[in-house]
TrEMBL record:
<dbReference type="InterPro" id="IPR019885">
    <property type="entry name" value="Tscrpt_reg_HTH_AsnC-type_CS"/>
</dbReference>
<dbReference type="GO" id="GO:0005829">
    <property type="term" value="C:cytosol"/>
</dbReference>
<dbReference type="Pfam" id="PF13412">
    <property type="entry name" value="HTH_24"/>
</dbReference>
<dbReference type="InterPro" id="IPR036390">
    <property type="entry name" value="WH_DNA-bd_sf"/>
</dbReference>
<keyword id="KW-0804">Transcription</keyword>
<dbReference type="InterPro" id="IPR036388">
    <property type="entry name" value="WH-like_DNA-bd_sf"/>
</dbReference>
<dbReference type="InterPro" id="IPR011991">
    <property type="entry name" value="ArsR-like_HTH"/>
</dbReference>
<keyword id="KW-0238">DNA-binding</keyword>
<protein>
    <submittedName>
        <fullName>Lrp/AsnC family transcriptional regulator</fullName>
    </submittedName>
</protein>
<keyword id="KW-0805">Transcription regulation</keyword>
<dbReference type="InterPro" id="IPR019888">
    <property type="entry name" value="Tscrpt_reg_AsnC-like"/>
</dbReference>
<dbReference type="GO" id="GO:0043200">
    <property type="term" value="P:response to amino acid"/>
</dbReference>
<feature type="domain" description="HTH asnC-type">
    <location>
        <begin position="1"/>
        <end position="62"/>
    </location>
</feature>
<dbReference type="InterPro" id="IPR000485">
    <property type="entry name" value="AsnC-type_HTH_dom"/>
</dbReference>
<dbReference type="InterPro" id="IPR019887">
    <property type="entry name" value="Tscrpt_reg_AsnC/Lrp_C"/>
</dbReference>
<feature type="region of interest" description="Disordered">
    <location>
        <begin position="138"/>
        <end position="158"/>
    </location>
</feature>
<dbReference type="InterPro" id="IPR011008">
    <property type="entry name" value="Dimeric_a/b-barrel"/>
</dbReference>
Length: 158
């Protein structure tokens, strides 16, 4: 990826609502050149979308937890993500190495709601769970520094 594209990605990661005019000013390109580059980055899948960052406390979901899951039957099909997709309280599902198969990031209204969600997860996916409750979040949604030099071990495909 060209250095100027990395700069555009970094700027948009910090502020997804940045205007083409502001991007042009920050990169030294014309507005039309920035527009073309952003569209190309979207087409290539580098920029996959734009999202609002929500204050979960304000919408009544103040409790965040990480739920590690592993199948009760190790020979069972690896289909937990599909079995859990209907549970809106699961914000993210990460396949991981280690004892567990997946780590889920969940957001709920209360400890009682978490307990209920854990029962739903266990029943829907036939898994055991290990839960870590978040006490506070000093930061998240940090923008990557896409202008940093890429790892030489990376093959360059995006």
């Amino acid at each position: 990826m060209e250095e100027i594209d990395r700069r555009i990605v970094t700027l948009l990661a910090r502020d997804g609502r940045m205007s083409f005019t502001d991007l042009a000013r920050e990169t030294g390109l014309s507005v039309s050149a920035v527009h073309q580059r952003v569209r190309r980055l979207e087409k290539r899948g580098v920029l996959r979308g734009y999202a609002a960052i929500i204050d979960h406390d304000a919408i009544g979901l103040p409790l965040t937890a990480f739920v590690s899951i592993k199948p009760i039957d190790p020979a069972a099909p690896d289909d937990a993500p599909e079995r859990l997709a209907h549970l809106a309280a699961i914000e993210a599902c990460h396949s991981v190495a280690g004892d567990e198969s997946y780590i889920l990031k969940v957001r709920v209204a209360s400890p009682v709601a978490l307990e209920d969600l854990l029962q739903q997860i266990r029943a829907a996916a036939n898994v055991s769970t290990r839960t870590t409750v978040v006490l506070s979040t000093p930061y998240e949604h940090r923008a990557p520094d896409a202008t940093a030099e890429p790892d030489p071990a990376h093959n360059g495909s995006a």
